[in-house]
Amino acid sequence: MAAAITGRYPAGSATESDTTLGKEFWLVRPMYFTTLHWSEDRTEHRDCFVDSDGVVRLPYGLPSAETVTHWAELPTLPGGMTHAVLGEDVQPALQNAWGARPRT
């Protein structure tokens, strides 16, 4: 899925005024949602998003420094109902997508 996170760069401290805080940004990254994830340090996380760098992010409103504010499921691949393909199934899926006709 694609998920959005927001923040400021560079991050300012809580004691600084609003005018000295960094610029606000939105960032959309590919992530997956899982009901159970174990971090490299063996910390257990439940109902969380994990990005491609292995950063665990919680849904907005939960206590975390890394939260996801919006998310959307990726569209299906052309000519099928599959949202993602991994490993040896990638090449056949590409061949099918290239030959697929647009739906009308």
Give an overview in words:
10% of the residues lie in helices and 39% in strands. By secondary structure, it is mainly beta. Strand 2 and strand 3 form a beta hairpin. It is extended.
Layout: helices, strands, pairs:
Layout: E1 2-9, E2 23-38, E3 44-51, E4 56-59, E5 67-68, E6 70-72, H1 90-99
Parallel strand pairs: 4-5
Antiparallel strand pairs: 1-2, 1-6, 2-3, 3-4
Number of separate helices? 1
Uncertain stretches of 5 or more adjacent residues: none
The H/E string reads: EEEEEEH
Give the termini separation: 25 Å
Molecular shape? extended
Q: What radius of gyration results from the CA coordinates? A: 18 Å
Specify the structural class. mainly beta
Percentage beta strand? 35-45%
Total beta strands: 6
Q: Give the fraction of residues assigned to helices.
A: under 10%
The average pLDDT score comes to 77
Largest sheet: 6 strands, mixed
Query: How are the strands of the largest sheet arranged?
Result: 5-4-3-2-1-6
Short description:
With 104 residues, the chain is mostly beta strands. The protein has one helix at 90-99, and strands spanning 2-9, 23-38, 44-51, 56-59, 67-68, 70-72.
Structural key phrases:
104 residues, mainly beta, six-stranded mixed β-sheet, 1 helix, 6 strands, 39% strand, extended
